[in-house]
Amino acid sequence: MLVQDVRGPVCDLGEGPWWDARTHRLVWVDLLAGFVHMLDPGTEGCRTVVVGQPVSAVVRAGENWLLTVETGFELRDPEWKTLSSYEIFRKPTKVRMNDAGCDPAGRLYAGSLAYDDREGLGCLYRLDQDGGCHELVTGLGISNGLAWSPDHRTMYHVDSAARVIYAREYDETTGSLGAAPVFYTHTDDDAMPDGIAVDAQGGLWVALWDGGRVIRLDATGHVTAQVSVPALRVTSVAFGDEDLRTLYLTTARTGLNEATLKAYPGSGRVHFFHTDVPGLSVAGAALFSLPDSSPASPHGCPRRAT
């Protein structure tokens, strides 16, 4: 497959690609820099919004924008003015929010990690349509990619530190999670699975941090394809364009020395290639307000889900 790059900005830590079907634009973030980029693939025109703090994911919430930021969530209007916020962690924080994604019903699931990479401090949260926030899973290393199976019965969830992808039982009606059998463990090299996306056949495309490639897993967890990328640290993937046959890849250059950057000149850029099997459309958030109060604590744990 021919891998190309878009003429967008070079990011230190590109992350969170999301296809905005409303405007036919690719949205992604430069996470620690606190930038949101919005690219029109047709014209290659790109708008950048300065969030003012680390931002790990952005999705639509009606006409507004829902952001996963360093300490929790923000809701912003179409022109990016802050409407409300919900704090899980208090600043200064040793833990921050990370990758996020919406389930088919419009709930937002978002993970967290420790700034110093200590394992066991990561959690997975769910933000419901009414703005209620629930802690679902604790004791994770790096809570990362999230995606749902075509039949909406499984939520795939990555713990990058463990190099594992779980196939968690998922109830679309309630948003609750059940058993979490291991779907895939990456043992080929020192790369870590990062962001993920599901295609219409149930194949799971996986970005490999420090792997210089993306892989596709079939519904049984076996590798069926791999595509090399001119960036060592591939962070996430998302299907886009009208037919959802373009897979966009975000990458990072953070922490790489000059020799590695020379060997991987596409580090920090967004790349793409075309797939034979289209991706699944990804929902935005069915959310129009955030709660007035925040349960922030030094431990970053709001109330447990029931």
Brief account:
The protein has 306 residues and is mostly beta strands. 2% of the residues lie in helices and 47% in strands.
Task: Walk me through what this model shows.
There is one protein chain. The chain contains one helix and 24 strands. By secondary structure, the chain is mainly beta. It has a single domain, classed as TolB, C-terminal domain (Neuraminidase, 6 Propeller). 49% of the residues are buried. It comes from Fodinicola feengrottensis. Belongs to the SMP-30/CGR1 family. InterPro entries: 6-blade_b-propeller_TolB-like, SGL, SMP-30. Pfam families: SGL. Residues 13-253 form the SMP-30/Gluconolactonase/LRE-like region domain.
List keywords for this structure.
306 residues, mainly beta, Neuraminidase, 4-stranded antiparallel beta sheet, 1 helix, 2% helix, globular
